[in-house]
């Protein structure tokens, strides 16, 4: 687990970052979730209206990915990864989503080093949004 003050700062920053990304993409607040536990993760619903919906997911280990929603209990099927940087500006994430929706391939998955202090610093600008 993370130290309490570090986890609180990370949660505040992630909340603001997810909100900024969601606004950039046009996802309503109720279509977003995030969690800070042993890892930090976020989820944004990308309703498509044809067949299975897409979701935009973020983790503190791999950054942003687009995956196909599956039935509960099944693993989502990842279709594209954004890659580095771990915390890109919201317009970059929105362009990634638009490219995936248009059929463009994402970059290969890149594992990002697990540096929680660096992650908290990158998310600090989103506290209070």
Structural account:
With 129 residues, the chain is an alpha+beta fold. It has one domain (4-126). Helix content is 33%, strand content 22%. The chain has helices spanning 4-25, 90-101, 116-123, and strands spanning 32-36, 40-46, 54-59, 63-68, 77-81. Strands 1-2-3-4-5 form a 5-stranded antiparallel beta sheet, with helices on one face. A hairpin with a 3-residue loop joins strand 3 and strand 4. Helix 1 (4-25) crosses helix 2 (90-101) and helix 1 crosses helix 3 (116-123). It starts with a helix and ends in a 6-residue tail after the last helix. The model has no long low-confidence stretch (mean pLDDT 82).
Keywords, separated by commas or semicolons:
single chain, alpha+beta, five-stranded antiparallel β-sheet, 3 helices, 5 strands, DUF6292, DUF6292 family protein
Reading side by side through the largest sheet, how are the strands ordered? 1-2-3-4-5
Count of individual helical segments: 3
Number of domains: 1
Enumerate the spans where pLDDT stays under 50 for 5 or more consecutive residues: none
Distance between the termini: 26 Å
Task: Give the percentage of residues in beta strands.
Answer: 15-25%
Report the sheet with the most strands, covering strand number, pairing sense and barrel closure.
5 strands, antiparallel
**Shape type:** globular
Radius of gyration computed on alpha carbons: 14 Å
DSSP E strands, number? 5
The run of helices and strands is: HEEEEEHH
Q: What is the residue-mean pLDDT, rounded to a whole number?
A: 82
Structural class: alpha+beta
């Amino acid at each position: 687990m993370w130290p309490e003050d570090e986890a609180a700062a990370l949660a505040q920053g992630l909340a603001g970052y997810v909100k900024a990304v969601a606004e950039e993409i046009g996802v309503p607040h109720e279509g977003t979730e995030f969690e800070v536990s042993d890892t930090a993760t976020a989820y944004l619903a990308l309703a498509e209206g044809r067949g299975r919906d897409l979701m935009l997911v973020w983790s503190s280990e791999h950054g942003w990915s687009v995956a196909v929603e599956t039935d509960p209990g099944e693993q989502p099927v990842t279709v594209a990864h954004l890659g580095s940087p771990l915390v890109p500006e919201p317009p970059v994430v929105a362009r990634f989503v638009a490219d995936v929706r248009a059929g463009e391939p994402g970059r290969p998955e890149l594992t990002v080093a697990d540096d929680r202090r660096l992650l908290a610093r990158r998310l600090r600008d989103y506290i209070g949004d």
